[in-house]
Specification:
- By secondary structure, the chain is an alpha/beta fold.
- The protein folds into three domains: about 5-145, NAD(P)-binding Rossmann-like Domain (Rossmann fold, 3-Layer(aba) Sandwich); about 155-260 and about 285-300, no CATH class; about 315-388, Rna Polymerase Sigma Factor, Chain: A, CATH 1.10.1740.
- The protein has 17 helices and eleven strands.
- It has helices at about 15-25, 40-50, 65-70, 80-90, 105-115, 125-140, 150-160, 185, 190-195, 205-210, 215-225, 265-275, 285-290, 305-315, 320-335, 345-355, 365-385, and strands at about 5-10, 30-35, 55, 75-80, 95, 115-120, 145, 165-175, 235-240, 245-250, 255-260.
- The strands form two sheets. Strands 4-3-2-1-5-6-7 form a seven-stranded parallel β-sheet, with helices on both faces.
- Helix 2 (about 40-50) runs parallel beside helix 3 and helix 6 (about 125-140) packs parallel to helix 11.
- The longest helix has 22 residues, at about 365-385.
- Bound molecules: nicotinamide-adenine-dinucleotide (NAD) and magnesium ion.
- Nicotinamide-adenine-dinucleotide binds near residues 123, 203 and 205.
- Magnesium ion (MG) binds near residues 148, 149, 150 and 219.
Length: about 400
């Protein structure tokens, strides 16, 4: 039996890992929609390879190039933000949400509103929309399958017990490439150093988030929404080897952990095959070769992002959306060489301080409004504190 699949963000790192699995199981999958922001030629090549029905570039300016690259293929082409949302609303068996940033929120909501099954890698969408997204999931009977490796690990561990019996959920964090750096070294960290992750190969934005620990901050908020145990039962531990992807402790002090190679094809496969299992091309886990698994307390002096995320979700309302928006702006500025590494968290904190009266968003439009104004606020802070 074939299953239909839509992949939002097909040209990215998660997109490539997903398509690698699909490529190995061509008889199982019928690709319905593939999307990208502006890389029309790359998207057209994937659409041709996988026989997609529709290819969408969210950047409308890239549509003529997409049309040209798809000429004669019989594959439909579309462009722009509205086309992206309409494509996500098409009925399919599974939607893989792999766009980076809050830009992926509207299409994810469209997939939720048709009651679909969504493999969610796009954590920023859930962080920004929080309650609005979870309410829509419940209202429309949608299924969210956590694809972020930590949340996928927790989801798998939770199959062993009842959520009411959970004493603690511990997110593991690699600590990123700058984990052991001094404050002075962090001040001078370059984009190349920040994206050089020791364990995972990922897109630039999440790589920087991993270096600042904001990735774990976003994941803490993500876990809060996906697994309703309350903030007091959510913990973070540094685990540099990234072998244990997260853990669930039950009230009898039994702790279950999920282990695996640090390759996103493992959690993606778990979502694609759920509730069954499928093969992946990865080598078996060789614990003797790994030798040691180590654990450390996070250092929130050098890496304040997890504190900021915790404060934002405690404050609730619009704070998580503001945190996420400011972080997206600050990370882009850092990658463009405009601000220092350590300014990223500072810009997030200052943006939150200046926007604290924003009301709690109650709809997708209101979330997008909060996102927009927080970006404007963060951008104006950048103008005042640029490096050069
Ligand atoms: P990436 O930068 O490699 O790819 C992003 C994809 O989104 C591309 O296809 C790009 O064309 C598209 N895109 C970018 N901006 C867009 C916009 N404004 N509108 C529409 N589409 C846009 O990112 P990635 O590393 O694959 O990460 C994707 C998501 O998955 C992120 O939310 C990230 O946090 C999450 N995630 C990634 C990993 C990983 O290993 N890469 C692990 C866990 C979670
Ligand atoms: Mg993760």
């Amino acid at each position: 039996m074939t299953r239909t699949l839509t992949l939002l963000g097909a040209t990215g790192s998660i997109g490539a890992s997903t398509l690698d699995l699909v490529r190995r199981n061509r008889d199982v999958w019928q690709v319905e929609v593939l999307t990208a922001h502006s890389s029309a030629v790359e998207l057209a090549a994937l659409a041709r390879e996988f026989g997609a029905r529709l290819a969408v570039v969210s950047d409308e300016a890239a549509l003529p190039a997409l049309r040209a690259a798809l000429a004669g293929s019989g594959i439909e082409a579309a462009g722009g933000a509205r086309a992206l949302v309409e494509a996500a609303a098409r009925p399919v068996d599974i939607t893989v949400a792999a766009i980076v940033g809050c830009a992926g929120l509207a299409p994810v909501m469209a997939a939720i509103e048709r009651g679909g099954t969504i493999a969610l890698a796009n954590k920023e969408a859930l962080v920004s929309a929080g309650e609005v997204m979870m309410a829509a999931v419940a209202r429309h009977g949608a299924t969210l399958l956590p694809t972020d490796s930590e949340h996928n690990a927790i989801f798998q561990c939770l199959a062993a017990g009842r959520i009411a019996d959970v004493a603690r959920i511990t997110l593991t964090a690699s600590g990123g490439p700058l984990r052991t750096w001094s404050q002075a070294q962090l001040d001078a960290a370059t984009p190349a150093q920040a994206v050089a992750h020791p364990n995972w190969s990922m897109g630039a934005k999440i790589s920087v988030d991993s270096a600042t620990m904001m990735n774990k901050g976003l994941e803490y908020i993500e876990a809060y929404h996906l697994f309703p145990v309350g903030l007091d039962k959510l913990a973070i531990v540094i685990h540099p080897q990234s072998v244990i992807h997260s853990m669930v402790e039950f009230r009898d002090r039994s702790t279950l952990a999920q282990l695996g190679p640090s390759d996103m094809r493992v959690p993606i496969a778990s979502c694609l095959a759920w509730p069954d299992r499928m093969d992946t091309p990865l080598a078996p886990l060789d614990l003797a070769a790994i030798g040691e698994l180590t654990f450390f307390q996070p250092d929130e002096q050098r890496f304040p992002a997890t504190r900021l995320a915790r404060e934002a979700i405690r404050a609730g309302g619009s704070a998580p959306a503001i945190l996420n928006a400011a972080n997206e702006v600050a990370v882009a500025a850092f990658l463009a060489g405009q601000i220092r590494f350590t300014r990223i968290a500072a810009v997030v904190e200052e943006t939150l301080q200046r926007s604290h009266d924003a009301p709690a968003p109650a709809s997708l439009d209101e979330v997008l409004n909060v996102d927009r104004s927080a970006r404007a606020q963060a951008l104006s802070l950048l103008e005042n504190t640029a490096l050069v």
